[in-house]
Amino acid sequence: NAGVMQNPRHLVRRRGQEARLRCSPMKGHSHVYWYRQLPEEGLKFMVYLQKENIIDESGMPKERFSAEFPKEGPSILRIQQVVRGDSAAYFCASSPIVRTSDNEQFFGPGTRLTVL
Amino acid sequence: GQSLEQPSEVTAVEGAIVQINCTYQTSGFYGLSWYQQHDGGAPTFLSYNALDGLEETGRFSSFLSRSDSYGYLLLQELQMKDSASYFCAIISAGGSYIPTFGRGTSLIVHP
Questions:
Q1: d(Cα A25, Cα A77) in Å, to the nearest integer?
Q2: Most buried among A20, A30, A97, B37, by the most CB within 10 A?
Q3: Is A73 strand, coil or helix?
Q4: Contact assessment for residue B30 and residue B96, using Cβ atoms and an 8 Å cutoff
């Protein structure tokens, strides 16, 4: 059973370009979460999606960032007009169901975005 | 709001026991999780405590005291491969049960 897949693993963009990050959850998982991690820091929640629905986007910047999880295909985190401050590792996680007692999340290997 | 405090770095020798503490502040607390991350790789889930007490899983144990808003991760019989970052994360009320992560503790195991 393949784990959470993310691609690309490394992405280099120039300021002003668009970055598109993809995440395929584990088979059978319908909940996807995106996090951003800066060096020496923890994971900062960005957005939580289920198929065709954004459930919680409280951690996502209001401008330039968007996310989707279509009925078919991977979840996509899109960053428009990237700036140097967007350089970070972006992790995707998935979970099968969300329970009150436990929300174990399975993380992908991350996409390292570098903005020149 | 929510906040977590954990030491930035802990060092220990192979074979020893090490404890990584985590204190938190939040409202509507559900539970405390621990994750391990090697060199910026994929974080992996280690444990979850919803009730007070100690949960043991092999060489790793996790403890929670809800009244003290405190927990710790205990690693026994340390191995070199345990060198990694360890993150505590709290699950709080808010509807989505999304973990809020601490800044992480870098564990360095020396031979």
A1: 13
A2: B37
A3: coil
A4: no
Q: What values do phi and psi take at A31, rounded to 5?
A: -115, 130
Residue whose structure tokens are 């092999």 = B58
Could you tell me which residues of chain A have a Cβ less than 8 Å from any Cβ in chain B?
Answer: 3-4, 33, 35, 37, 40-45, 48, 55-56, 89, 91, 93, 98-110, 112
- Phi and psi dihedrals of B75, rounded to 5? -115, 125
B71-89 tens-digit pLDDT: 999 999 999 999 999 999 9
Q: Is A86 helix (H, G, I), strand (E, B) or coil?
A: helix
Structural contact between residues B72 and B19, judged by C-beta atoms closer than 8 angstroms: yes
Q: Do B103 and A48 touch (CB under 8 A)?
A: no
Instruction: Please give the average per-residue pLDDT across A74-96, as a whole number.
Output: 96
Average pLDDT of the segment spanning B51-67: 95
In a 10 Å sphere around its CB, with 0-12 CB exposed, 13-18 middle and 19+ buried, how is residue A77 labelled? buried
Dihedral sign (CA A104, A105, A106, A109): negative
